[in-house]
Here is the input.
Amino acid sequence: MQRWLSLAVLGVLVVGWPSSSAQPPDISGAWAQLQVTSSITNAPVLGTINLKTLTTIRLEVTQKGTDLSIVFEPCAVESESSSPFFKVIFPEAFVKHMGIDTKPARLESREDSWQLFQPRYTIVRGVKLQDPEKDPLPTDPNDPRIFDQDKDGKPGMTIRVNVLGFIEGEIYIIQRDWNSLRSTTLNTMIIDGLIEWGSEQVVLGASNPLLAGQSENIPDPKKENSYFRTTRVEPNTTCEQIVKNRDKLFAR
Here is the structure.
């Protein structure tokens, strides 16, 4: 009997009592997030370049056990180019009218830690599709499904492009973007990880004919170049405050 008790105690020591990680961490509340998506892009006039799109976002997370509902509010969108002769500008109206999206996500147990996983989520901009995942993007600017989402009087969404310092103008586009997020670091103050993503775009027109060609945007094959950084903020933190303090918020 004594030997049996000893083995039982040893079993408890080896297996261990349920650790604190058996309960999912509480990540509900407000967060600031930086999403960086890296691509290989066929730029007008210049040809192939590397482009990074940096999107600053305010998140509001609602949690029930391991199930999450995350409200994504865009605060700013910027781009960085491998060429000093190519620049993309996302006007204030573009960011303002991107829309606030609520995406489902979940916490997944991985041995002695937890991961955040946001499944693939698709967004279309400047066009209304019956099936946002599968319907082809229309190419005719007069297609009735296309609308002026950023309310600037032009079809679709408007971005500004500068090439070589003197070829510049507006491009009118519709887009289909998708992404999926999985964390590599998660605690109650920081959630960082990698982004899988894809994008389709149709150029409907341009203010400068040299910018009116279609361009291809392919995700960088180096997965580590598309990532997100997320930092908890106070509940009343605004988009403006996040943008102002983003260097500090996203420093790692």
Observations:
- Residues 2-15 form the longest helix (14 residues).
- Residues 1-20 have pLDDT under 50 and may be disordered.
